[in-house]
Specification:
The chain has 339 residues and is of the alpha+beta class. The protein has 2 domains: 2-90; 109-336, BirA Bifunctional Protein, domain 2 (2-Layer Sandwich). It contains 11 helices and 10 strands. The chain has helices at 2-18, 22-33, 38-44, 53-90, 109-123, 137-140, 173-181, 222-237, 290-295, 312-320, 333-336; strands spanning 127-129, 134-136, 160-162, 165-167, 186-195, 207-217, 243-250, 253-262, 279-288, 304-311. The longest helix is centred in the N-terminal third of the chain and has 38 residues, at 53-90. It starts with a helix and ends with a helix. The protein binds 3,4-dihydroxyphenylalanine. Residues 170, 172, 212, 250, 253, 284-286, 307-309 line the site of 3,4-dihydroxyphenylalanine. 3,4-dihydroxyphenylalanine binds next to β9 and β10.
Length: 339
């Protein structure tokens, strides 16, 4: 029996030394020391030994068990080291391999234009404010002095959420919201999305962008409006830009004007951007109508103001030579990457 134990020890230790992974090692442990293992198997035969032999064999069995356990423990440490080494080797990075290209995004041309606009007006002391895209009929039309029968109120032009709520058709309602909240002097611009019930084509999109400007103080004149817009135009289109006012009609301004700028592409000679006439239509503007001031609790006998509004999408298209407004909203990186 002692011999069988010694033979078992030798076999077990040889196997443990050969083991190459923690799984191999665990298998060996179960095989030799487990409940159904070989050592237990041998010890089961101790019943047939004489009283004198039993303690001697028992001692040997304990030594064999201890030796096997020691061998297991030793192997475990060295195998763990080996495994770590193997893992590190497998995971080494080849620094000479070409890296994965990180795709850097780009500011959308509309965002670029809006950032430019904000910076220009901030530099003239304007504050940038934001307003709701879902707007009440009161702010979008009534408070802006739009007559009840004004065509823009029609369902075919405006998206109604319900009788009193619309998707704003212009940024002009922000004039009213600001004048209700703040006392003059007021100097704000507000940029954002507007919506009209238009069928999309190369020049129309049911969703588009505007910037609104409003200045209210004592003694504000049309001269201030002209000066402000001239500074804007020179900064946005180039230092040689000139502007001109054409009489127009808006419900919320009196007098009202449409403002053209000399074409930034040809400087006024006539080209494809300005369709040959040297000027491009840029915005609507005027002196805030006394009714609008009154609607907002501002006394038109004491204060006056000017306002202007322009479509940002069209300006962006002209500036970058984009011939279809729908391209702006497709979010195709091949398009956006060009600007
Ligand atoms: N809200 C006008 C539109 O969408 C543009 C406009 C014209 C805004 C004159 C103004 C203004 O503030 O004074 O067509």
């Amino acid at each position: 029996m002692e011999q069988r134990l010694k033979a078992l020890e030798e076999k077990a230790i040889a196997e443990i030394k050969k083991a190459d992974s923690t799984t191999d090692l665990e298998k060996a442990r179960v095989h030799y020391l487990g409940k159904k293992g070989e050592l237990t198997e041998i010890l089961r035969g101790m019943g047939s030994l004489s009283k004198e032999e039993r303690p001697i064999v028992g001692k040997v069995a304990n030594i064999v068990r201890a030796n096997i356990e020691n061998a297991l423990e030793e192997s475990k440490t060295s195998i763990k080291d080996k495994e770590l080494h193997r893992k590190l080797k497998a995971e080494t990075i080849d620094v000479t391999m070409p890296g994965k290209e990180v795709k850097v995004g780009k500011r959308h041309p509309l965002t670029q234009a809006m950032d430019d606009l904000k910076n220009i007006f901030i530099s003239m002391g304007f504050k940038v404010v934001e307003g709701p895209e879902v707007e009440t009929v009161y702010y979008n039309f009534d408070a802006l002095n739009a007559p009840k029968n004004h065509p823009s109120r029609d369902m075919s032009d405006t998206f109604y959420i319900n009788e009193n709520t619309v998707l704003r058709t212009q940024t002009s309602p922000m004039q009213v919201r600001v004048m209700e909240d703040e006392k003059p002097p007021i100097r704000i611009v507000s940029l954002g999305r507007c919506f009209r019930n238009d069928t999309p084509d190369a020049t129309h999109s049911p969703m588009f962008h505007q910037i609104e400007g409003l200045v209210v103080d004592k003694g504000i004149t049309m001269g201030d409006l002209k000066g402000t817009l001239e500074v804007f135009a020179k900064n946005f289109f180039g230092p040689d830009t000139k502007i001109k006012f054409r009489p127009h009609n808006f419900p919320f301004t009196e007098p009202s004007a449409e403002v053209d700028a000399t074409c930034f592409k040809c400087g006024g000679e006539g080209c494809s951007v300005c369709k040959g006439n040297g000027w491009i239509e840029v915005l609507g503007a005027g002196m805030v109508h006394p009714n609008v001031l009154r609607n907002c609790g501002i006394d038109p006998e004491v204060y006056s103001g000017f306002a202007f509004g322009m479509g940002i999408d069209r300006l962006t298209m002209q500036k970058y030579g984009i011939d279809d407004i729908r391209l702006l909203f497709e979010n195709d990186m091949r398009f956006i990457d060009q600007f």
